[in-house]
## 1
Amino acid sequence: MAGDLDFTEQRIDGETVCDAGFMRMVRDRVRMHNGKEATRYVLRHCGAAAVLARFEDDSLLLVRQFRYALGRHTLEIPAGKIDAGDEPLATAQRELREETGYVADDWQQIMHCHSSTGFTDETLTVFDACGLRLEGPPAPDEHEHLQVVRISLADAWKLKQAGEITEARTLYALLWLRCRSDERL
Amino acid sequence: MAGDLDFTEQRIDGETVCDAGFMRMVRDRVRMHNGKEATRYVLRHCGAAAVLARFEDDSLLLVRQFRYALGRHTLEIPAGKIDAGDEPLATAQRELREETGYVADDWQQIMHCHSSTGFTDETLTVFDACGLRLEGPPAPDEHEHLQVVRISLADAWKLKQAGEITEARTLYALLWLRCRSDERL
């Protein structure tokens, strides 16, 4: 836009300080637009995709799992990390099948975002999936331990209001679903 | 809920592998519910708060800044990290004042979430702020370089649809604002 200022920071050098496979922490020395130097820690992340899988009665599929980072179980829409070379849609379709056993006929992207711009390049793409069909039993990864929960939007909304659903992309999907009768979306 | 399975993972031991001040990466060895061992990387984060600062005409305040993690400038609602001992509301109020120069009379929490449950305990609390008054010039931190942008909701929505606003909490706030005439929210 006209009048936009340029705050670009240029990388001078840097190194990976921790490599955890799907994510790695790098520490870079940068030159700020005012000429000064600064240190920037960045979490480089492979990206993720998620699915709002909903039935015609507006009930939806959530997965319950233990999130070690939080030290507790959560209820979230199905999601997973993007494998190298994969597209977000392919990831979402695979995760839905693996985590819940369902496949879906109709897919629509409802959100593409950067999950926490202050420190990571992680992208997240959320899809709305309709026309659900149970294709078989869930087949999660060896290290994933999941419980599939089918829940009405009304009940999910109550859990959100009660602070029992707190995962960001799930909250976005619930808000989107709550509002989707509104044509402006 | 009845029928809930227990997937709890117990920490065996671990260490900090990278300390970046407001966040640190830890690597823990854990015992899964099935008795097997696994490694968990977790980004321990101080948490953040953000503000949807809006005027009576539904225009709002965004800040434009360079996000090194993304390698480009972004437009986002004002936000900042929570200092030790601070509450999210106090953080949001401070960030609004520092980044934009505005203070607000009316504050309402519209979202509390975990931003990326797969790898971090980062919490994010978003507030709606009305009754804005310009109190003075912005006073950002020494290392923050910002440009304040007042924009109509309609124009912000267009930027969202065009993929030019991609920051997650900003997208949530825009969706919330777009839907707020709906009493169900």
Note: The first helix of chain A runs from residue 88 to 100.
## 2
Amino acid sequence: MLTDPRLATRTRHMQSNAIREILKVVSKPGMISLAGGIPAPESFPTERMDEIFGTVMAKYGAQALQYDATEGFEPLRVALSDYLAQQSVQASAEEILIFSGSQSVLDTVAKMVISPGDIIVTEEPTYLGALSAFAPYEPRYRTVSTDEEGMIPEALEEVLKTEAVKLIYLTPTFQNPTGYTLSLARRRAIGQLLQTYNCLLLEDDPYSALRYRGHALPPVWSFAPEQVIYSSTLSKVFAPGLRIGFCVAPEWLRPWLVVAKQGVDLHTSTLNQALAVEYLTGGHLPEQLATIIELYRPRQEALLQALTQHFPQDFIWSRPEGGMFVWVIGPEGLDAEAVYWSSVEKGTAFVPGKYFFAQPETGLSTMRLNFTMVDESTLDHAVQVIAEAIQEATAETA
Amino acid sequence: MLTDPRLATRTRHMQSNAIREILKVVSKPGMISLAGGIPAPESFPTERMDEIFGTVMAKYGAQALQYDATEGFEPLRVALSDYLAQQSVQASAEEILIFSGSQSVLDTVAKMVISPGDIIVTEEPTYLGALSAFAPYEPRYRTVSTDEEGMIPEALEEVLKTEAVKLIYLTPTFQNPTGYTLSLARRRAIGQLLQTYNCLLLEDDPYSALRYRGHALPPVWSFAPEQVIYSSTLSKVFAPGLRIGFCVAPEWLRPWLVVAKQGVDLHTSTLNQALAVEYLTGGHLPEQLATIIELYRPRQEALLQALTQHFPQDFIWSRPEGGMFVWVIGPEGLDAEAVYWSSVEKGTAFVPGKYFFAQPETGLSTMRLNFTMVDESTLDHAVQVIAEAIQEATAETA
């Protein structure tokens, strides 16, 4: 592959995120979109912001507008230490580093550990944003089979046995795109493998707070904290427009992440970090999170019910206990992209699942449906439209 | 040099910014610091923030809290187009990309154009933050001589003639650390060289709005817009804690910068971009900038006057018409680091200039003095202390 001589050679591995390109097409007025991966605007604490802002300026004043430490705003590291303790992540403030969204954690970790040609293990399908963070560092990928209980440890061990794996990337809870959650037994087994093979895991956990049913599971981090970078974000429980992500990293890696971040953006917005402190410690989070869950739970139920009602018998789909996505697998031979175009013509969009697979010609019959942006009755209508599009696509094939 | 096998090979080029390390030492209570490079907190529009925030929430509501385009918040790109037009940068909103501080521009440009071993030309001395942004992409450096009128075009041409230069990095106005400003004739000459050798320049312009005397000069960009990435920031005219930087880039490079930024942090904080829109368009900037200049101008005058009064005759220093720094060159043989330690003992800090030189054992007799954080009478006192430390260091040498 030729590279423009004005550019770095690493650009040959980089391309625009296909989902964002698709979203451009579906942004026309009137389109019902199950394609996005973003929170509903009505889930944001918009009404609380004046109060939060007022408290921040009263408490921190000019400090909230000034440069700050690369590691993160100290009061936020302390507040996150308390927040994480409720989620089986017992980390001191010092062990927590703040980043400009969890995307920035993915970029920085890859920058620090991946030399060109190093192997990263991912789920298949996986989160595309992670691939665009990793791409400039020129890794090679190995994918590991995944089922409804997440990555299969035996399949992972096959890879670890035969290859020098530099990093594993996993979203164990309510994964994007599948909604799958790694079972407790597999969390334990993977933690054990990390220790046995002394391999580093980047555990991406943006969705676990969005739980509508069932019981929380401890992160893989809790089974092997020396081998895991635990990464999360306030984008789904506060507001993505603030770009606050964070990670808990092993001691040997932490100074390197700080050096790298210093070169990338000096530090994350002090003002937004101060707003996050007030949101976490001022009693806002528990109330707002309850509101968010009460918004999404019925939407997810409506989507699952509509699928049962309208989709053909030979389709299956995930039934996650939380998160933002449901994953649909059509019968072999289904061309989900043909369904997509037909459905978009009828005014309803989703994402053909093949975009989440590294291998070409894989996942052709799959679809990712998002349920956070649309209300219950619209979801029912949207699923009917997609079902019609499926019928047409199937009729054409037959 | 050995690299920890858990890390990427690129980490061998990376190290913590020495100035930030020095700043840790000088943060003890009571220390007078001329070492920093940050704006005075009293220069921030702290009192205006409630009004600005209120307007933003009223105007944009949940949109200010939502994900947004990688390219930047559209109203901010429009507002910056107007702002830049006042500074001889005629760029449409579409040509302007928003980044998370200008540090993030430096990182992203280097990521997109520098392959390992590619040559970057810098001034000597140069801004350390740029070197930490560039380091992970493993460039080689060539330095070009600089005098009171900035980089010497003839010296630059010598390098361009003999080497394949991938990128030139310049801070043409009130440079950090020297305060030097590239003369108009040299701006024109360098613009001409860029075209002749079809070479790319990264023009870093954080300080030009902080002008206390004399007339504004057009950026090098205006002489060769196809060969220049013009980069600037709102950190010095609004607030650094918001992390709003931006650049104007040639058309061929822009899509690549967007793809890279998507992988690094998806986009810059929507809320902070919306605050910046209101600051720029709501009539705040002109009043606040006048306040900032009236704060810094007398400080800089006090520093220059104190140097004349207290420093030995064989020292020379820059007399910039703006910015945040004055550069002092002591007589050959002076060990400015010895002066530093002696001065710190007496309660006054600055930065020994050698840290800004790529070559070891260079710039040993130089010092960078910042004047933004300290009032006039304290500046006079601080210069007296440093003068005493010089006397002691010189006596010991003699």
Note: Chain B touches chain A through 75 residues (CB under 8 Å).
